[in-house]
Queue: 2 jobs
Job 1
Amino acid sequence: MSQIRAAGLQLIYQRGYEGMGLRLLAAEAGIGQSTLYGHYANKQEVLVDLICRHMEELLSCLHRAVPADAPPFARFLTFLRFHLTYHMRRPREVFICYSELRSLEPANLARVTDLRRRYEHALIAIIRDGMAAGVMRRADPRVAAYGLLAMLSGVPVWFDPQGPLSEEEVCAEYIRLAVAAVADPLEAALSDRTIATPLPDSPARKA
Amino acid sequence: MSQIRAAGLQLIYQRGYEGMGLRLLAAEAGIGQSTLYGHYANKQEVLVDLICRHMEELLSCLHRAVPADAPPFARFLTFLRFHLTYHMRRPREVFICYSELRSLEPANLARVTDLRRRYEHALIAIIRDGMAAGVMRRADPRVAAYGLLAMLSGVPVWFDPQGPLSEEEVCAEYIRLAVAAVADPLEAALSDRTIATPLPDSPARKA
Amino acid sequence: MSQIRAAGLQLIYQRGYEGMGLRLLAAEAGIGQSTLYGHYANKQEVLVDLICRHMEELLSCLHRAVPADAPPFARFLTFLRFHLTYHMRRPREVFICYSELRSLEPANLARVTDLRRRYEHALIAIIRDGMAAGVMRRADPRVAAYGLLAMLSGVPVWFDPQGPLSEEEVCAEYIRLAVAAVADPLEAALSDRTIATPLPDSPARKA
Amino acid sequence: MSQIRAAGLQLIYQRGYEGMGLRLLAAEAGIGQSTLYGHYANKQEVLVDLICRHMEELLSCLHRAVPADAPPFARFLTFLRFHLTYHMRRPREVFICYSELRSLEPANLARVTDLRRRYEHALIAIIRDGMAAGVMRRADPRVAAYGLLAMLSGVPVWFDPQGPLSEEEVCAEYIRLAVAAVADPLEAALSDRTIATPLPDSPARKA
DNA sequence: AATGAATGAGCTTTCATTCAT
DNA sequence: AATGAATGAAAGCTCATTCAT
């Protein structure tokens, strides 16, 4: 039930998986405590549902957002904007998916790790292609991808939608950082024109 | 007692603060369960001790490692190397200091947040100075600092000392990313010579 | 649940509130330890329930037993007999209601103190009326009431239903003491005829 | 040590024997926790010491205060005044000696019960003698003694030295009640002259 | 699909007590 | 005589889970 998921998301975000009691989860979802077991086999399943659902949606949205046949640098820019937007709008899911992995039982962790790897490899492939095409500096593409992902994924920690910087401004700032970090300097000089590729679900804007 | 800290560090890293039972902590530390209360007033104090101790040491080492009177770019490089080395060697502390903040009671959280802010401001100041000196691209120094810190701090998530990449190789790779991300392109082209400043406690290497 | 109350009454009487463990209480009541919390929010509530329930019943029985419109001396005699009978038959409740007051949290103590005050004032009013009517010696009615209540309430400390003295004999003996203590000597001389007013729930007897 | 006794008296009075932790007792007495065991074999001994010491002193003071060879009624009056004064001045000891008996181990309880019995029998003997001498109404002397002792011992529950009634006024009021309760009416009429026998350790006063 | 009642296992914390110094 | 450190046992309470309805 979606009310359980909503309550679980909020509670795990605030108190952690171990810190969330099922009593409270049920109360917050507006149902009886034992009714939970009509929807989930046990507590762990609530966490697995939240994490997997988020990561699967992340993956499928990614594939929809990033055209497989575009040139590497365009795919790179699209990826950056997609990732940033998605993460700024789902700070709780992002936090849970990172810091509650340790609460997953091995089999569930393996499932999640696989999803995560597929997402990471999407960026790794983009970077690899970009290097092959000569538009990115030669470097270890895995290290570069991990570095960029960590940088981008850290946004929700401090970003506040009501704060002084708009989502768009933060996007632009981070994209500049990321592009500068990996692009071939010459290409980077040209990239300003293309940074502002609009995302399907975000209001279009021009450079 | 240091044995309690060692056990607490490991257990909180593996199972989280809420997931760590004091029975297990005591057993792991090789003492009776109630003996814990001769060293800490309560469970929370164990966490506070671990987090504060780490952050205070981080701050004091930072101040020792980064000379206040050096030019901005040199300070930047020193900061990067210091931060990376410190974080690669303390993956558990790093993880705890980030993802167990929510388990801190308000007063303790305030104390930790202050320490964290002081550390972040060290990098912000460096970037601000670098921009003023014209060696770094104009950008929001806070955003740049947060972005870089997230990128650098993400290393321990995947870095494995027994893995194919050495600590030094990872350092060099990340420093290239970070420098490229914020440096003025011209300056960056010149920076390769200076990236490999050796740290006192790490084996010297050449660029 | 009444089985919990029965077990709690016995255990608190024997070992005191602080001395009663909830493990033992549950065992004595024939339920699991955590089942207690389905009936009481916490340990204190068990005590509050026992004390308040007894005092409220005491008050309501008193009002049923003592007719408000009878002459003072008749009300006095009825009060004495009622109080004695009630206390001889509930030695454990009486003891708890007196000596566990200190274990009550302030709010609960206030509630109980109010009930107790209402009971005491019933006797004070009787004595005041008796003095106004000239059938009792002039004295401080509060002091007299406290003195008599202490005297009467002390019965369960030594009274043994299986002992040599019957409930009725003890009643008569104490009533003589109490009447002599406060009655106007002339009236007291005449009162022997009226001492033995039968109580509804006690076997009728004649003087 | 007398500081331990003082702290124990206060703590047991406030929180009960079971409710008094030895940590707190030691802190209140200004000594280390384990130092207690240099003075008492265990917690129980602290209680036994307090109770026995009080009852033994009560007994020995009683024998000093009440002359064995005086006529019954004079001894009665002396006893009343002695008991009241002693109890009004030691409310905490009195409370403990009554309501902590249940915390005594059997052997210790027996010892205390014996002391208590000796005290009660002093009054029983006085009443018996009074009846034999014809100055008191015929009644069960044990019941009368228990009734009077309960009445008199209840004073400290409500008496407040700073309150509106002085110690002397309360004494006089209670003595009138007690005398009226057991005296032969004719004798009682004559007794007013003799109520105010002064106690050694209380300021002399006149009727 | 939903629930109230029940429960064994576990939680953090405090207990009275011991012991080496 | 005094103490700091240590400890097994027990405290009150919450946990995730089951089950009959």
Job 2
Amino acid sequence: MAVREDKRELIIENAVKVFAERGYYKATTGMVAKAAGVTQPYVFHFFQNKEELFKAVIDRAFSRIYDAFSEVNAPADQLIETMGRAFNQIIQTHRDEVLMVMQAHAISEAGIREHVRQLFLTIFESLTLKFEGAGISNAKETAAHFIGTGLLITVAEVLNLPQLICGKDEAE
Amino acid sequence: MAVREDKRELIIENAVKVFAERGYYKATTGMVAKAAGVTQPYVFHFFQNKEELFKAVIDRAFSRIYDAFSEVNAPADQLIETMGRAFNQIIQTHRDEVLMVMQAHAISEAGIREHVRQLFLTIFESLTLKFEGAGISNAKETAAHFIGTGLLITVAEVLNLPQLICGKDEAE
DNA sequence: TTTTATTTATTGATTGATAAATAAATAAAC
DNA sequence: GTTTATTTATTTATCAATCAATAAATAAAA
């Protein structure tokens, strides 16, 4: 039992890397299998198809971001700044996962898109609640704006355009 | 001469639709050809490969956005608002093209990514100059923020999450 | 022995791309 | 001005590769 779960975990963990590096379409199930040290057909023993595998992978990555935000606890006047720092921190420790989640909206599989929609909705509502709880007046606008900044940072990272991130110069 | 150019144009125009609707990877050269009313191999008479075709297509779409921004002329205190309206307008008249450009950063072909990088850089610099010219103090930050909002709107459109766009309710 | 874990072998479909053939248009020659 | 030659436009036929997914076989474990 533990073995079966371990292999599934192993596949997900390695699939994160492959999907993040190559994108959904250029990542093959063969590559995922190789990274996990199993044969390609064996991946389908744990996941019905490539789409289901990706959903499991993105859920994993999403949880990391979600949890990081949940753990943030700061006074109202420093909340947004602290949340921003939390985001910058996960982008440093788990760059691939974050970029994958933030780019997943561009995958044109209906099933995946609906799944990603739910993830973004969850994050948006959770951020809104957090900001409301802190007494921030326009919580929704602030939450949306926060996501917009996250998207900007993602594009800046992916396209190697540090100019887009304020306070971050070309020089690394 | 005119004929040759016309066919090339025809292919680009139809390719815009196909790429925008299906995304780079799910769009096939066969679909593009069919939409343009030519045979699939004939597409390769005008474009070396799928990647080059896409570059031509995204340049077309990008120009539309760039030109729309260039045409904006408003007093400093209304510039950003007016630019925002300009963006919302092209998104209504040429939804597919705008979404395609704003999502192109997620395409994991090195050649395309570099091309897209240039497009984003061009937009960023052009916006910055515009804001500087209007005497806006932190022109760069404002330009970056403007792009971030554009990305947010794109995600909201693609994932059908109007909640993310402030002032835009679920009810259409 | 019976289940569980995992592999080998294979397939069927898709798709970008090439090559060769044909048709149409234009120009040259008579 | 009609025929011939030559280029330009476009198609048919086809390939080679890639990949997700299935089925059947085998090894390991309980």
